[in-house]
Structure formats: structure tokens, C-alpha cells
Amino acid sequence: MPRLATAYAKRMKCVFTLAVACMVLAAAPPPDAVRDRIIADAAASNPASLAFDRTTTSVRKGGGSTTRSVVVERWDGKDWLLISINGNPPTDAERQSASRHANETPVPGYHSLARLLAASSSSSTSDNGAVILQIPVLPPGSVVADGTDISRHLQAEAQLARRGEKVWVERVSVTARESFKISLFVKVTSFEQVSDYRLDVAGNPRLAAQSADSLGTLLGFPGGETRRVTYAYRQ
């Protein structure tokens, strides 16, 4: 019996040691080569080589009223063109305003992940085994809201996916690190943005959809906005 107890104890020690090793492995950052390869793939994705239509549906609530808008824009690899607002052709003034606003923000796409992933500092593993990179603070210019760069108030998680030898970022979830102000009149108390990326027929990751939800106050009155964005790529 003592020998049996000793053997059992040794076996349990090995099992416990293996479990701890698995936990350490799961919490460890992925190999630098994997992250570097993803960053290189993202940096090689040139927005000038893309052409797509972007449809943005926004619902804003505040001050006892609700405003809904559907805006369709087109990126041709060089310039933005406003296609429609709520199903109607835009006026010249609306086109000029949209052009100015578009020029103030980076073209969205997988290429933007190069700078984002370079700012990651740790990793974890999800329940389904996916590797997740943590970005404690977003690099400047990552997220612009109403003309204001709010990146320093945000953090992110990037979930990786694998198909054969191909590894890419499948989803990026951005949340607020703290409450913050966009202007003297607008304070944001909650912010969450999710970006989904899918492989195209050639096996290249493409930004497919985004959603953003925010809550806050305007002049002291509570309000919020939901935004849903879809991307339709053209060859």
C-alpha cells in the first residue's frame, strides 16, 4: 500500500505539473515570428489596391429624440465618393463635407492592423483555443470620432485564426479604458467597437463588417449611438 500511495502521489504530481505547464503555455505570448508575419501581411495590404462600397447605418439617441441615417460611400483606391444619404443622391455641399471628413480619417482595412498589433504587449487563449493579443493602449490615430482622436482612451483585443499555414486576425474588439470627453459638451462613458475580418477568394484578409456602440452625455443629457458598417468589395 505505501508503494501504491507513493506511485499515485508521483503520478498526481506529474499530472499537476503538466496542467501548470499547459496554463503557462496558454498564457505565454505567441512566437514573435507569428506576430511579425501577421504584421508584415497587414502592412503589405495597400488600401490603394482596394475598391469597395461602405454602408454605414447610424442611430443616435439623446435629448428626447432619435436620429437614424444610412450613408453609402465608395472608395476607388484613391478617393472617396459619397453615393447616397438615406437613399437620396447627395447635394454638392454634402459631397464636399463628406470628402473633407473622409480625408481626416485613415482608410479602413486590414492594413491598419500593422500598427495596432505592434502595440500588443501580452496574449491569452480563449475557451475555444484561439490566441488573443492584448493591446493596452491604442496607437494615435487608430480611432477618430467626430474629428477627435480618442485612441489613447481605448484598449483592444485581437483574436487570431488559422487555416492551414495561414494565420490572420479574425476579430478586433475595442473598449474604453476610462470615461472621456470628445468635446466640452460630449462625454463618453461606454464605448465598444468590433471589427470582423474574413478571407477573400484569394486567401487575403479583408475588413468585412464593423459595429460600434457608445453611451454618454451631451450637455448633461444622456444619449448614445449605435453604428453598423458593412463593406462590399469590387474587383
Describe this structure in words.
The longest helix is centred in the N-terminal third of the chain and has 26 residues, at 2-27. A hairpin with a 2-residue loop joins strand 1 and strand 2 (65-75). The strands form two sheets. Strands 1, 2, 3, 4, 5, 8, 9, 10, 11, 12 and 13 form an eleven-stranded antiparallel beta sheet that branches. The protein is α+β, with helices and mostly antiparallel strands. The chain is built from four helices and 13 strands.
Short account of what is shown:
This protein is an alpha+beta fold. It has helices at 2-27, 32-44, 92-104, 113-118; strands at 52-62, 65-75, 80-85, 122-125, 131-135, 144-145, 148-149, 154-163, 166-176, 180-181, 186-199, 205-218, 221-233. It is 25% helix and 45% strand.
The chain-level mean pLDDT equals 86
Q: Considering DSSP H and I runs of 4 or more, what fraction of the residues is helical?
A: 10-25%
Number of H/I helices: 4
Strand content: 35-45%
Element pattern in H and E: HHEEEHHEEEEEEEEEE
Which structural category fits the helices and strands? alpha+beta
Shape: globular
**DSSP E strands, number:** 13
What are the segments in which pLDDT stays under 50 over at least 5 consecutive residues?
1-30
Query: How far apart, in Å, are the first and last alpha carbons?
Result: 74 Å
Radius of gyration: 23 Å
Q: Note the quaternary state here.
A: single chain
Q: What's the main sheet like? A: 11 strands, antiparallel
